[in-house]
Amino acid sequence: MSAVSRRTNWAGNIAFAAPELHRPATLSELQAVVARASRLRALGTGHSFNDIADSPGAQVSLAGLPPEVEADSARSVARVSAGLTYAEVAPRLHAAGFALRAMASLPHISVGGACATATHGSGIASQNLAAAVTAMEMVTADGDLVSLHRKDDGFSGAVVHLGALGVVVSLTLEVVPAFDVAQQVYENLPLAVLDDHFADIMAAGYSVSLFTDWRAPRLTQVWVKQRVGDPAAEVAEAPWFTAMPADGPRHPVPGQPAQTCTEQLGVPGPWYARLPHFRPGFTPSAGDELQSEYLLPTEQTVAGLHALGQLSQAVAPVLQICEVRAIAADELWLSPCYQRDTVGFHFTWVPDADRVLPVVRLVEQRLALLDARPHWGKVFTTPPEALRASYQRLPDFLGLIGRYDPAGKFRNAYTGRYLAG
Ligand SMILES: Cc1cc2nc3c(=O)[nH]c(=O)nc-3n(C[C@H](O)[C@H](O)[C@H](O)COP(=O)(O)OP(=O)(O)OC[C@H]3O[C@@H](n4cnc5c(N)ncnc54)[C@H](O)[C@@H]3O)c2cc1C
Q1: Cis peptide upstream of residue 358 (ω within 30 degrees of 0)
Q2: 211: Cβ–Cβ under 8 A, 6 or more apart, which residues?
Q3: Quick one: which of 109, 217, 224, 363 has the fewest CB in 10 Å?
């Protein structure tokens, strides 16, 4: 156990108030830590931008537990230690001949933390990362190890759990045969093209991301990631919807070095080295930043883009880059994509909360009219009652808390605000 004077999340905008950080080396040590604690939260890699991972008592990191990755080819699943990062898991899966269907923009995050908040990448047929979970093992409040399986009652509620049910030790993930991906960046696509062609553009690759700085009515970049050998995915001839292929590698955030990004220019490579935008071993994104993201039903895409266009004079001065992504619907109760195909409007802001928060409020007031839900792990100011009302299965999730954590050991200020009411 360590009591450190000042610990923060990755972005440095949250100083954890938790006075203790435990780093057990074995499952039984973890069980003892959980059983002993009066209040406890699991900490992944701390990449969330709000107080979701903070604790009024202890925090526990699983980074010291044995780094297990066990592929089961007969069942097309792999059981992985929840404290491992995707950067640690993915090459091991690839070496065993497997791939994950989706990855986030960065592999630096823990599997446990990413699934807990419904972290996602982009792709019209790609669900969020938690949707791959077929089973999980979790240490509950009294230190018991509980196994949950997809067929179990309440499983769809337990996978995106915001850390509120227990400490997840392992996740079993669906895998597919390993595949290669080639990515190409296009530049300067007029935003107006999206009015009629958003669906075509998002369908042009296995994973497509659109970037704009809202300083002009154009997409600065379009990242198209194609599965190699996919006959349906012939990369368009230039110009593509009037956009031209970039003449060298690019970083989506203006002014940032392209060598921190995954390889582009159509060079094929393994799925895990192309699906994320950012390479492990380097600072992802800008480094100095805040992030927000709003997830809307896909049919609200054009209305959302127009609403943001009207706010561009407020947004642009505090924005580093905005990314538009697609995520397929899932059945996970607390997933922002629950039963709806989704478009994500992501914002990488300047690292200045005083200037950013008023704009966040403005953006979310407009997007609320379009049924937007905020990303659980990013900066948002959505009124708790509105947030709670947007999750129809929240009462069922509260039932799971009652089942696994009746005394509220895993409760913190964040879950008190957004879950409990
Ligand atoms: C540069 C950058 C890029 C990002 N890109 C994306 C992106 O492409 N897509 C996207 O959707 N999000 C993105 N995010 C957000 C990020 O994926 C989420 O905030 C994610 O939850 C972070 O994972 P973590 O391991 O850091 O979890 P933490 O932030 O440490 O914790 C998040 C939550 O998970 C819980 N938790 C963590 N581990 C466990 C466990 N083992 N058992 C139980 N609960 C646990 C914590 O208690 C907390 O509630 C990005 C963030 C950054 C900083």
Answers
A1: no
A2: 219, 220, 221, 222, 223, 252, 321, 322, 323, 324
A3: 217
Classify each residue of 188-201 as buried b or exposed e, where b means 16 or more C-beta atoms within 10 Å of its C-beta.
ebebebbeeebeeb
Helix (H, G, I), strand (E, B) or coil at 67: coil
Q: How far is CA 391 from CA 54, 335, 371, 388, in A?
A: 23, 9, 11, 6
The token duo for 29 is 């040590």
Helix (H, G, I), strand (E, B) or coil at 341: coil
As a whole number of angstroms, the distance between CA 388 and CA 15 comes to 26
Q: What is the CATH number of domain 69-177?
A: 3.30.465.10
Confidence at residue 384, expressed as pLDDT on a 0 to 100 scale: 97
Burial 25-59 (b: 16+ CB within 10 A, else e): eebeebbebbeebebbbbbbbbbbbbbbbbbebbb
Helix (H) or strand (E) holding 174: strand 167-174
| Fold topology of 180-378 | Alpha-Beta Plaits (3.30.70)
d(Cα 226, Cα 336) in Å, to the nearest integer?
A: 26
- Report pTM: 0.97
204: burial class by Cβ within 10 Å (0-12, 13-18, 19+)? buried
pLDDT in the model for residue 240: 77
Counting ligand 1 atoms within 8 A of each CB, the residue from 117, 289, 348 with the most, and so the one to mutate, is: 117
| DSSP one-letter string for 370-399 | TT-EE-TTS-----HHHHHHT-TTHHHHHH
Find the 86 Cα to ligand 1 centroid distance in Å: 11
Q: Helix (H, G, I), strand (E, B), or coil: what is residue 412?
A: coil
Where in the chain are all domains bearing CATH 3.30.465.10? 69-177
Query: CA torsion, points 284, 120, 216, 200, in degrees to nearest 10?
Result: 130
Three-state SS annotation for 118-165: CCCCCCCCCCCHHHHEEEEEEECCCCCEEEEECCCCCHHHHCCCCCCC
The token duo for 354 is 């005083």
With a cut of 50, which residues of the chain have pLDDT below it? 3
Pocket of ligand 1 (CB under 6 A): 10, 41-48, 52-53, 62, 82-83, 104-106, 109-110, 112-114, 116-117, 119-121, 162-163, 167-168, 284-285, 291, 375, 377
pLDDT for 239: 67
